[in-house]
Amino acid sequence: MTTPPPLLGVRGLHVTFPGRHGTAPARAVDGVELDIRAGEIVALVGESGCGKTTLARSLLGLVPPTAGRVSFADKPLTYSTKALKAHRRRVQLVLQDPSGSLNPRHTVYDAVAEGLRIHRYAGDERTAVAQALSRAGLRPPERFFLRYPHELSGGQRQRVVIAGALVLEPELIVADEPVASLDASVRGEILALLLRLRDELGLSALVVTHDLGLAWNIADRVAVMYLGRIVETGDVEQVLTAPQHPYTQALLSVLPEAPSDPVVLTGELPDPSRIPSGCRFHTRCQILANGEAERAGVAQACRTESPGVLGGGAEARVACHWARAGTGAVPGAP
């Protein structure tokens, strides 16, 4: 049996921004391959500044790629106004801050109906808005129609934003830090909502987060991003219980339930206009710093040879010379 194509596929994606005052261009996304299958939730994880949001926005055509391509339902994304409008009906964005996403002068009804009006929805608008609010957990929906954002709690505002994404019945949502601005008591409710939407509607999702704990609770697969490139990917349980890349190990070590002491990375995330040679993580790598890479015979390779770009399939992969030498990890694509 042939494997069906992914719902969304990214191949060799690069997004470069011009440098300021004559400096080198910033390589925000620097060769990413990623697949999202129908009905799958993928967590894109990494610290601030690693390129997660730029990658997420490029999947909706909000940031056109410098090179590479994005495909949806096995068809390449094109960047005409008509094609982008059709694409964004099938792929919707949920932003981090619901207060910033909602116009304070618009009622909940108008906020949710906006997408229908933009896309000239031919059906019953009131029914569609009520159904979207109900699916997002705001019931009875009519009770919220005439409310304004300031009259809602933070969790309710985020549900309105999700309803605005659901009203067009998309196949994929891209959620950028969807619970980062919410109280801890509300985060679990929103995560449970996303899981329920996946189970009931077959909805796929890319969840962008810096929180590996969130990824554990919601994702089927995880992709760890560092300095514009995915450095480890695989099933969430496999990656988070037995991380192979030193960067993934460091991210996991700071979780409250981590069994070992936190790994303190040296220095700051490098400037994307000056990406280090060799493995892009080697300037901060605890494995190189403590001599383990030298003992494994890969220290020179870490400093001078790129581990390559990881393929976008479902297989577990890691872009790390040390992990490949010591664990027999699946190598990335050349």
| Strand elements, count | 11
Average pLDDT, rounded to a whole number, is 92
Major sheet description: 7 strands, mixed
The poorly predicted ranges are: 327-334
The CATH architecture of the largest domain is: 3-Layer(aba) Sandwich
Q: What is the CATH homologous superfamily assignment of the largest domain?
A: P-loop containing nucleotide triphosphate hydrolases
The CATH class of the largest domain is identified as Alpha Beta
In the CATH scheme, what's the topology name of the largest domain? Answer: Rossmann fold
SSE sequence, one letter per element: EEEHEEHEHHHHEHEHEEHHHHHEH
Number of domains: 2
Question: What integer value in Å does the Rg equal?
Answer: 21 Å
H/I helix tally: 14
Q: What does it look like?
A:
It is built from 14 helices and 11 strands. The chain starts with 7 loop residues before the first strand and ends in a 7-residue tail after the last helix. It is 35% helix and 19% strand. It has 334 residues and is α/β, with parallel strands linked by helices. It folds into 2 domains: 8-17 and 27-224, 3-Layer(aba) Sandwich (Rossmann fold), CATH 3.40.50.300; 244-327, no CATH class. Belongs to the ABC transporter superfamily. One of its GO terms (molecular function) is ATP hydrolysis activity. It comes from Streptomyces spongiae.
Architecture blueprint of SSEs:
Elements (H helix, E strand, L loop, with lengths): L7 E10 L8 E11 L4 E5 L6 H8 L7 E6 L2 E2 L4 H10 E4 L3 H4 L6 H11 L6 H11 L18 H13 L5 E5 L7 H18 L2 E6 L2 H7 L2 E6 L2 E7 H6 L4 H8 L32 H4 L2 H4 L3 H6 L12 E2 L2 H7 L7
Parallel strand pairs: 3-8, 3-9, 6-7, 7-8
Antiparallel strand pairs: 1-2, 1-4, 4-5, 9-10, 10-11
